[in-house]
């Protein structure tokens, strides 16, 4: 029998039992849709996080006290501005070394108030991190050296305190101390689950005075190029360890952060895909089941086909194609459903989703393979039917 | 002229739960290309088993069976299928037409397994349906046709491959007597055109029309 003919016969048989074919396909449709949608969400989330980490700025090296290991608690910082100067000497460029002291504070303007993350920073912060201003200007070196009480507001905090009014030049209080607003940031949105629009940047000196401390929580260094990051990382950690022999320091690059996050998301996506794969497997079992019923129902037809010259292989191929058609049609519908679901999730929820061609190709391939695997047993059974017995069946 | 089918001391034993049940016990017979033979016998006489063997649907457990000059003992199921396709045409009591398929496509079915292209299949099927007097029923489905018409479609299907033997198992069993007569007349006219016809029946009247009667009892010819 020619293959084209076999396809037609298989399609015909599926049409003859339309409702049953559709219900059988449904198992595969749901399985494939789940795989495509979940892999899409996993890929999209990973892409978004990569974008956000890279969006911080390029060639970043983040230095914090303590060990960055699973299970280790964050350590209290013993770093001061003197350490920042020491690190700047190692780096050779003061403009590439940003320092931060952070504290959650209530910020008030008139009768309105908002909770914000106050960040005491140096004037060079925009050189290290990507941070664009919406209005006004950023902190100056003089602001930092004189500890002037000026603030740059995140877009969220600005809106919370001032609504649509222009905040530039207005007074706010942070922890009861008055500051003057000199600028606002562009809106950034969520990043790694942190709302970066509720930050308030003030000179590090002003922040230290407000908090009654001279500590620095962390350093960020922008390396001149990718190649020098690792050497710089070692040099900076060594310098800090020399100055604070009792404290561990850790330096991480964006690539390391991405690597860790990527690993976690990869495992998560894999687990989700595996769970979805199980439903695809159940769909395959359904196909197998229905094909066995179909073989039994059409025993007489098989007997007749054999009597007029169908070889066992012809019959086997016919039933195998039927199973493969069920799963591939189901697979295509499932892909459509999966893509639609992923796009809907992407559009209607904060969870991002990205459809990749390889996941579609994989889903289609897997559904065809499921058809073959779960079609083989019924097909063999049909092919091996004794024509005498088959013809006698009523 | 070589014989279409030659059976020599053919036996067939079934194995039912480890017990050997002989259905045929040493049957010899020859079907010539021009024969019109009736195999008669009561149920359980072995006539169905004999028909299955003659049609190449089954293989003997003893003796030799030549179909179209080939010894079936050495053939695998695929080769048996090819042999059936090329030499035997089957006509069944219950017609065995594919229900959702038109008369023409039913008739063309054996050609599918011969690898004949669609266009030629349809042409040859049309020709056969004309020959059995159904040129007005080409695109009808079995449920749109009478029993007699359905059996004619089945005969056209049996003929479409140009077989040397038509094996008809109770071909009139599901038909009223007038329709049965016309089906028999059709088989007889085909026989006169050079196709061997083997009728399997328990109906003495039908059997009496054949040129030769083979009476089966308890697995042997009497």
Automatic annotation (TrEMBL), chain A:
Intracellular or extracellular location(s): Cell membrane
A Pfam family reported for this protein in Swiss-Prot or TrEMBL: FtsX
Residue ranges of domain ABC3 transporter permease C-terminal in the record: 274-387
Principal subcellular localisation of the protein: membrane
Residue ranges annotated for the MacB-like periplasmic core domain, each copy included: 21-236
UniProt entry keywords in alphabetical sequence: Cell membrane, Membrane, Transmembrane, Transmembrane helix
The keyword Membrane belongs to this UniProt entry's keyword annotation: yes
Membrane topology of this protein: Multi-pass membrane protein
Spans traversing the lipid bilayer: 21-42, 264-294, 315-337, 357-377
Sequence similarity: Belongs to the ABC-4 integral membrane protein family.
Protein name stated in the entry: ABC transporter permease
Species whose genome carries this gene: Paractinoplanes pyxinae
Lineage: Bacteria, Bacillati, Actinomycetota, Actinomycetes, Micromonosporales
């Amino acid at each position: 029998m020619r293959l084209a003919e076999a396809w037609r016969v298989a399609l015909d048989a599926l049409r003859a039992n339309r409702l049953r074919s559709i219900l059988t396909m449904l198992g595969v449709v749901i399985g494939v849709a789940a795989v495509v949608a979940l892999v899409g969400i996993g890929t999209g989330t990973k892409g978004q996080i990569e974008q956000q980490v890279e969006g911080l700025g390029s060639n970043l090296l983040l230095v914090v006290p303590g060990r960055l290991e699973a299970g280790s608690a964050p350590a209290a910082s013993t770093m001061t501005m003197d350490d920042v100067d020491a690190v700047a000497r190692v780096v050779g460029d003061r403009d590439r070394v940003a320092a931060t002291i952070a504290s959650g504070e209530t910020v008030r303007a008139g009768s309105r108030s908002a909770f914000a993350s106050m960040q005491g920073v140096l004037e060079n912060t925009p050189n290290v991190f990507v941070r664009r201003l919406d209005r006004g200007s950023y902190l100056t070196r003089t602001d930092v050296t004189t500890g002037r009480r000026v603030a740059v507001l995140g877009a969220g905090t600005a809106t919370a305190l001032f609504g649509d009014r222009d905040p530039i030049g207005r007074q706010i209080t942070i922890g009861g101390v008055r500051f003057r607003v000199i600028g606002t940031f562009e809106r950034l949105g969520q990043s790694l689950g942190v709302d970066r629009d509720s930050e308030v940047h003030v000179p590090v000196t002003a922040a230290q005075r407000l908090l009654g401390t001279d500590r620095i929580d962390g350093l960020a260094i922008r390396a001149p190029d990718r190649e020098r990051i690792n050497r710089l990382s070692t040099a900076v950690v060594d310098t800090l360890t020399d100055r604070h022999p009792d404290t561990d320091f850790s330096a991480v690059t964006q690539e390391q952060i991405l690597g860790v996050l990527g690993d976690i998301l990869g495992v998560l996506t894999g687990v989700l895909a595996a769970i979805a794969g199980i439903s695809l497997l159940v769909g395959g079992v359904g196909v197998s089941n229905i094909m066995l019923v179909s073989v039994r129902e059409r025993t007489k037809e098989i007997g007749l086909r054999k009597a007029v010259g169908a070889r066992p292989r012809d019959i086997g191929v016919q039933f195998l194609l039927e199973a493969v058609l069920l799963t591939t049609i189901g697979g295509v519908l499932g892909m459509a459903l999966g893509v639609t679901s992923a796009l809907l999730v992407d559009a209607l929820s904060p969870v991002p989703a990205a459809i990749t061609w390889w996941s579609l190709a994989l889903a289609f391939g897997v559904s065809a393979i499921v058809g073959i695997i779960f079609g083989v047993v019924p097909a063999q059974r049909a092919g091996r039917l004794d024509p005498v017995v088959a013809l006698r069946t009523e | 002229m070589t014989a279409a089918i030659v059976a020599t001391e053919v036996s067939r034993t079934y194995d039912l739960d480890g017990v050997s049940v002989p259905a045929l016990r040493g049957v010899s017979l020859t079907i010539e290309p021009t024969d019109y033979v009736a195999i008669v016998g009561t149920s359980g006489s072995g006539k169905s088993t004999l028909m299955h063997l003659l049609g190449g649907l089954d293989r003997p457990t003893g003796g030799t069976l030549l179909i179209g000059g080939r010894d079936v003992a050495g053939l695998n199921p695929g080769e048996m299928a090819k042999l059936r396709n090329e030499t035997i045409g089957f006509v069944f009591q219950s017609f065995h037409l594919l229900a959702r398929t038109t008369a023409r496509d039913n008739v063309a079915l054996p050609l599918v397994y011969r690898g004949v292209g669609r266009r030629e299949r349809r042409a040859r099927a049309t020709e056969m349906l004309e020959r059995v007097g159904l040129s007005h029923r080409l695109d009808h489905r079995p449920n749109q046709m009478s029993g007699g018409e359905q059996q004619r479609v089945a005969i056209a299907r049996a003929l479409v491959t140009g077989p040397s033997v038509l094996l008809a198992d109770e071909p009139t069993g599901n038909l009223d007597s007038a329709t049965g007569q016309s089906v028999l007349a059709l088989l007889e006219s085909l026989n006169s055109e050079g196709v061997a016809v083997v009728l399997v029946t328990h109906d003495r009247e039908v059997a009496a029309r054949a040129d030769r009667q083979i009476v089966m009892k308890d697995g042997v010819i009497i």
